[in-house]
TrEMBL record:
<comment type="similarity">
    <text>Belongs to the flavoredoxin family.</text>
</comment>
<protein>
    <recommendedName>
        <fullName>Flavin reductase like domain-containing protein</fullName>
    </recommendedName>
</protein>
<dbReference type="InterPro" id="IPR012349">
    <property type="entry name" value="Split_barrel_FMN-bd"/>
</dbReference>
<keyword id="KW-0288">FMN</keyword>
<keyword id="KW-0285">Flavoprotein</keyword>
Amino acid sequence: MLSAKIPSTILIEMKAVAEASISVPHVAEAAFSMECTVEHWYDLKNDAGQTNYTVILGRVRRFQAKDFIFDPVDTMRILPERLKAVSRMGGISYGRTLQMVELPRLAWSNVKDQDEVKAALDKTPSPPKL
């Protein structure tokens, strides 16, 4: 386990740069980063009541993005093949996002009355009473 007193940038031989809106630095070599503050956290407990994970929700205060990741035609669009994002897969495993699939966003108000949605909801057990 890495000590909180040892900056991870030392281990990966990258440069840390001070952020404008928060006290934690970002990696200078990163094509994209977000300056975030903790909004809330939820401890997830096992059946014995022990906390074994924590979900942290952050509020983005500022984005940092290098120019080369943007589409030259549509400058509000990031090109995934240039960003080469890394995502956490679980545990200590990470993966690179190289292929994208676009799916339309559904609005609940548009789908809630569809027969297949109602049928799926009928099969879903009710949440326990607290």
